[in-house]
Amino acid sequence: MSKEKGKLIVVSGFSGVGKGTVIGKVMEARPEYGFSVSCTTRDPREGEIHGVHYFFITKDEFLAGIRDGRFLEHAQYSDNYYGTPREYVESLRDEGINVVLDIEYQGAFQVKQACPEAILIFLIPPSAETLVKRLVNRGTEDHEKIGKRLARAVEEADQAPGYDCILVNDKLEDAVTDFLAVVDEPALGVDHYEKNLAIVPEIKKDLQAILEKDAF
Ligand code: 5GP
Question: What is the Cα–Cα distance from 103 to 183, expressed in whole angstroms?
């Protein structure tokens, strides 16, 4: 008898929402899941390890990968290419292993088209102010970079309706619990979608106001 295929879990979210932290906790709670390490043409940041955080490859290698159909999806983001290695994801899913992808919306929608059974989760902050506070308190980016991230979040807000589920990352533990519940029972995603979709335009409006007033 053939094994049931592993689930494909796609996570996107506002820049600075804590996507990496939520995914980290999900992987701790479910170590049997696979995390898809993407390929990128961007330079490694301090502390990033080839094969762990990304496969750092050249633009030529990336373009050859596109040509050879080696990516399940790929997209350009901030002048760099990012893509999900197809073979890794498919081999794990064939083994019955659930796979988590941390990708932006263009890639998420490509995945949904290729694999309609994929579960698309969009993470949002509880409010614009929380997002701003997190980015500022983190202290890793200067004012200009924070502005760019906030502007990107405004843009990303328009994509939230295309996801299967929208989750609020307010208390980390709750976000992880909701996340795992949706993976176990994807139909639950609809409740979170309906409940949280209305918050998105509010956050967008508030972010725009914060940006206009340079109040960050
Ligand atoms: P960063 O450069 O900050 O690590 O990632 C920038 C953005 O690229 C994030 O939104 C991240 O989710 C997205 N990303 C990372 N890997 C992939 C990928 O393989 N495909 C796509 N489409 N986006 C990705």
Answer: 17
